[in-house]
Amino acid sequence: MQHKFTARTRMFNLINDDASLLSSVSRFGISLGLGEKTVEEACKAKNIDCTTFLAVMNFLAEENVQPSDLVENISLETVIGYLKNAHAYFLNYKLPIIREKLNDAVLENERLYSYKVVLLKFFDEYVIEVAKHIEYEEKLVFPYVMNLLSGKENLTYSIADFEDHHTDVDSKIAELKNILIKYHPTNEVNFKLNDVLLELLWCEKDLASHNMVEDFFFVPVVELIENRLLKTKKA
Amino acid sequence: MTDVIIKIAIVDPSSIIRSGLSVLLKRLQGYHVHTFELNSVEFLVNNIRTHKPDLVIINPTYWGLIDIEKLKTENKNSSTHFFALLTGAVDEKVLETYEEKIHLYDDVDSVKAKLDRFFDILDSESEEFQSLTPREKEIIVGVVKGYTNKEIATNLFLSAHTVITHRRNIARKLEIHSTAGLTIYAIVNKLVELNDIKQR
Question: Which of A68, A219, A220 sits opposite B39 (nearest CB)?
């Protein structure tokens, strides 16, 4: 099937065409200042598997069209690198910034003091939840998969356990967004708070697409390898 | 008004039809639709397992022999509905296993009417969106103060089952599902003071 982007697409056109892909591009380790580089050249320069890069970009750009024949050729090392970069981005960069903006947006006057305390508490609890989810993947799931790739199997774990564990971390951020829209207790227009809301909207989308990459490019590929190991063992 | 959030898998080999149906579904009033577009039925089993769609709309012209009953029994926990997507003439027998049919020339209203039969969309005019009952407010205070359902039940002379029902209604009315979220609501609406909240 013909896809939107190919190895010969210029990186400039890819980003210009759909700016929401920029965060994904950077998660592959590709930075701005791309000149006239094509996808293939940019990937080569950073030692990234071009097939995997294109599969993810086309999947995100075409919105939820199942990647069909691709699973076979996906590089798990590249996907894991991508997921790790995404984790670092959310935990060390984006979420602290949103907290700071939230703290900044709600003025600390007597009337709103209690509200601000519980609002920030909500946010902090959310971040702890995200951190737990990330720690589980980085300490347990990724090492298991890396072992699998080097031919070592570990019978105590299987990627099916991951699917069970994979609860939606993005539902809580949606709740915070709803609370601000519906229950924020002032009636003055607050540009800073609007900014927070836009950040939350973007973050919610971004986390959803992160989960999609896990569901479509990570879990099925690991399943494939597990099944192969199982078959060779039986043979 | 609360939109019903539903996940729909669309299975058809034509990307024009898939995308078109997907756009139409996203326009339906009262629904917040998330679609998965699958170009072949072979992806369906995996999709049902990982994404648990609420509805599968599938073109039986290409996959008339798909065993829906088998799919359903294999995924006992999911309550997935199956609609047929008709783009041409199909043997009526094939359609018997589908719960509903969507025709290529159906308009938005008739597609909505067909979905409405399977998904409870709540009437925005109805009383229950107006406000919380005094009892529900009491329950929120209990939850926010850190009491268990059982403790709340004892304090208010209710059964634990009734408390759970109230909590479900509160979550639906407010669109808040977590205790931390209810705490914010309770503070904003002065149901509790900061001092009342147990340090957990």
Answer: A68
Q: Give residue-wise pLDDT tens across range A21-40.
A: 999 999 999 999 999 999 99
Distance of alpha carbon B200 from alpha carbon B178, whole angstroms: 14
For the record, the structure tokens of A184 come out as 């924020």
List chain B residues with CB under 8 Å of A68. 39-40, 43
Within chain A, residue ranges assigned H as helices are 11-17, 22-27, 39-45, 50-61, 76-88, 95-105, 113-136, 142-149, 159-165, 170-183, 191-213, 219-234
How close A65 gets to chain B, by Cα (Å)? Answer: 5
Domain ranges of chain A: 11-61, 75-234
Report the residue from B35, B175, B180 with minimal CB separation from A178: B175
Within 10 angstroms of residue A182's Cβ, the number of other Cβ atoms is 12
Instruction: Give the integer Cα–Cα distance in Å for A152 and A229.
Output: 9
First vs last Cα of chain A: how many Å apart?
35
Looking at chain B, the number of H-run helices and the number of E-run strands are 10, 5
* Residue B3 contacts A where some CB pair is shorter than 8 Å: no
Cα torsion angle, A145, A148, A154, A158, sign: positive
Judged by average pLDDT, the poorest of A91-95, B50-54, B98-102 is B50-54
What chain B holds in terms of domains, given with CATH numbers, is 4-116 (3.40.50.2300), 131-196 (1.10.10.10)
Instruction: For residue B131, give the H/E element and its range.
Output: none
**Paired residues of B38 in beta bridges:** B11
- Tell me the nearest-neighbour CA distance from A157 into chain B, angstroms: 18
Which residues of chain A are within 8 Å of residue B177 when distances are taken between CB atoms? 171, 175
CA distance A161 to A140: 11
Place of tokens 């207790």: A185
Please tell me whether residue A166 adopts helix, strand or coil conformation. Answer: coil
Rounded to whole angstroms, the maximal C-alpha distance in chain B is: 68
Q: How far is CA A10 from CA A38, A219, B36, in A?
A: 4, 30, 29
For A84-88, A168-172, A216-220, B153-157, which range has the lowest pLDDT when averaged over its residues? A168-172
Across the interface, which of A163, A172, A176 has its CB nearest the CB of B50? A163
Report the C-alpha gap between A82 and A161 in whole angstroms.
Answer: 21
Question: What pLDDT is stored for residue A195 in this prediction?
Answer: 92
Distance, in Å, from the CA atom of A88 to the CA atom of A134, rounded to the nearest integer, reads 9
